[in-house]
Amino acid sequence: MAGTLTFIGLGLYDEGGMTLKGLSAAKKADVVFLELYTSLMPGVSISRLEALLGKPVELVSRHVLEEQDAEPLIGEALAGRDVALLVPGDPMVATTHVAIRLRAEGLGIRTRLIHAPSIISAVVGLTGLQAYKFGRTATITYREGGILSEAPYRAIAENRARGLHTLCLLDARAEEGRFMTIREGLELLLELEDELGEGVIGPSTLAIGVARAGSPEPVVRANAVGELLEQDFGPPPHAIVIPGDLHFMEAEALRTLAGAPDWVASQRPPSPASRERKAEGAEELSEKYIGNLDFAFSTLSTREGSRAIGEREVEHVIDLARRYKEDAERFLEAGKHITSIAAASYAEGLLDALRLLGLVEFSWPPKGGRG
Prior knowledge:
Strand order of the largest sheet: 3-2-4-1-5
Largest sheet: 5 strands, parallel
Number of domains: 3
Radius of gyration: 22 Å
CATH architecture of the largest domain: 2-Layer Sandwich
CATH class of the largest domain: Alpha Beta
CATH superfamily of the largest domain: Tetrapyrrole methylase, C-terminal domain
Number of strands: 14
Oligomer: single chain
Strand content: 15-25%
Structural class: alpha/beta
Shape: globular
CATH topology of the largest domain: Methyltransferase, Cobalt-precorrin-4 Transmethylase, Domain 2
């Protein structure tokens, strides 16, 4: 009879972020694994963890969990043992862990989740921004093969069009000892602005830098992008928030909790006239996004996939992207321009992800013709 696989969140900074429930489950497990590549946890000590749990803790890499499909963990559970996997933050925020859980359940292994604080909840508390006003979360990644993913730029554009805040997670490459900083993330967003030129972000845009959330002394600063680029936030982990429309209480919270300048308090939700201008701009932007997708699909070709992602899965994702583009066209015809932009952004994100994985090839329109 198969054992169990329990995903236990460690929280944000060190092993002290585990809940009592998580600690109890880890102590009872037959085998304990730990991954530290999905997010940096500078305060974690494996020796302290082992002393706390009274048993060995085996560190597993991205290679083991993703390329080997978590075989060591799965094998132990199939042998009837109760296995615990300790992960940074909240267990299912990283898609890696979702894939492992689904594979385990498919093999008859019972899985459990024990939650812990995540950067998503921590940012709300640290900044004072209202949780229900956050839109789609994005990740700013380093260039791959000279290609810079436009997904975070599109997410910010979509969220700001709806008056929503955007949490930008920053690339973490533990195997290389490379963790993106707030300065690097903002510089990459400005590079995207230079390439796409849609007026989404610039040196005067309000942004918030959050460093070492969950630590004894986190750093939270709100100011114009140009100002934040000159500031030292200390070592990672870092995150960025690009606010949308601010409620007066949110503006006051940023002044009090994040040292925002006084001009932040003067920001108000747009007037009806400015909302009308924004809607007109959204219609034009939606038309451009759909035109971009038409061009991309006309040049798209698939490449031989990896062992983990077969041809059927690639075709399924391409089909989803086409459906999102068709949704964008229908929403545009119905006058729902912001929703059309959102659907087109999802389609673009799927295509960009496939290209970054080396599974498809396509071209966006030449610069000046895109967006």
